[in-house]
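Regression test case RT-17, inverse folding.

Input:
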């Protein structure tokens, strides 16, 4: 079994899972809205539905969250610092998350809202849009590797 301190965190921080989002998955409170959003992305990538529900504000949380084995989360991109931040007990993060369902590629873009209660940040809601991608063989791979699509995920 692979150790969490040896695998890269799915959020794309460049750190190990244990040194990044894994500590929040284990119970440490995320210190900022961006840290919570990154840990939630990683939880989607790792199928950690309990963590996703626990970090979703009760006023907007669904009763349950079923995993979708067809969706493979590939890349997270936090957009411009000016579009992400916090003010008092409120926070927001604008991001793009690239995913694949079978052979289809898509990008989910969302401006998420967060609220802090009793010292913990919670995901409140967002306005997601999903766009289909059609990467060409010689285009950069949408997974964020920097390689050509045909030599990577194509």
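Golden output:
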């Amino acid at each position: 079994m692979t150790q969490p301190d040896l695998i890269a965190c799915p959020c794309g921080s460049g750190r190990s899972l244990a040194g990044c989002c894994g500590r929040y998955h284990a119970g440490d409170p995320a210190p900022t809205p961006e840290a919570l959003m990154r840990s939630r992305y990683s939880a989607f990538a790792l199928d950690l539905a309990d963590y996703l529900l626990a970090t979703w504000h009760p006023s907007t949380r669904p009763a349950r969250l079923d995993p979708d084995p067809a969706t493979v989360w590939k890349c997270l991109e936090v957009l411009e610092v000016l579009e992400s931040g916090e003010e008092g007990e409120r926070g927001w993060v604008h991001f793009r998350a690239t995913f694949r369902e079978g052979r289809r590629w898509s990008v989910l873009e969302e401006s998420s809202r967060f609220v802090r209660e009793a010292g913990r940040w919670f995901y409140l809601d967002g306005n997601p849009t999903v766009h289909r991608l059609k990467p060409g063989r010689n285009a950069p791979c949408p997974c964020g590797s920097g390689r050509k699509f045909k030599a990577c995920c194509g």
